[in-house]
Amino acid sequence: MTGISLGPVVLSVDRFAFIAGVMAFLVLVALARRGSRTLAGLDEGATALLLVGLVGGRVGHVLRNFTVYTEDPLTVFAVWQGGFDAAAALGAGAGVLAVVALRGKTRVAGGLLATGMAGILVWQAVLHTLPAPQMTLPPASFAALQGPAVTLAPGQPVVINLWASWCPPCRRELPMMMTLAAATPEVQVLFINQAESGPDVQDYLLQQDLTTDGVLLDPDAAAMALFQTPGLPATLFFSSSGRLDSVHLGEISRAAFQSRLHSLR
User: Are 189 and 159 a contacting pair, CB within 8 Å?
Assistant: First the structure.
């Protein structure tokens, strides 16, 4: 399983697990608030805890990848791409609990701590209960936009990006991915276009002043079934042995893509 479809929304397993944990936290807060009159302020505290934790996690991630974000500062606000530091989020959340307790609301702080820990447990339980994607690089062949067909094979790290020119997140991430791919020749990065003709793909790349290197064609969108991806864009990272290392569904940030490229062996 590489992702979970909720109607038109496609989520990776890790994002679905995180959302499940947040929802469990909010539900428990609501139940606790209804069950005790001494927990006035629990709702407000929960909102503050969640917001400060998320902001702290994002800030921690940005600081950890500061040099990457200096190249394109506006991507700091592209939170839909992912990128949160769990340790920084927990530290920020602990600060909120300390402030609440210092204001004399120890019962509220205790309630937030209990419901927060329960949410974390649900998050981790879902994350470890859902099956992680198990896959090896399939020996499939795809026509190249330019040059001979390419057959997937282990031997060096391989990254597969499934994309289409009509897909807005694909359009946003493609230039960045192509730039980093060119700077990382030790990793084979292949951009397999889904359900479009060669001339259409060629025209799009020319219009956007993008390279055709590593661009493959899949007019029947067979790769989506082959790699078990429920939506676009999807990026799969395979080690040199052909084992699937990780999957990213949706738009990927420069920091995440660069980090995974450099960590592949």
Answer: yes
Q: What is the pLDDT of residues 176-234, one digit of tens each?
A: 999 999 999 999 999 999 999 999 999 999 999 999 999 999 999 999 999 989 889 99
- Residue pair 203/136 in contact (Cβ under 8 Å)? The answer is no
* DSSP letter assigned to residue 160: E
Domains contained in the chain, number: 2
166 found inside a domain: yes
Between the alpha carbon of residue 251 and those of residues 39, 174, 213, 216, the distances in Å are 40, 9, 21, 19
Domain boundary among 77, 94, 129: 129
* Residue 65 DSSP code: T
Q: DSSP secondary-structure letter at 37?
A: G
Mind giving me the DSSP string for 163-199? E-TT-HHHHHHHHHHHHHHHT-TTSEEEEEEES--HH
For residue 6 the two structure tokens come to 């909720």
Same domain, 177 and 206: yes
Cis peptide before 131 (omega within 30 of 0): no
pTM of the model: 0.83
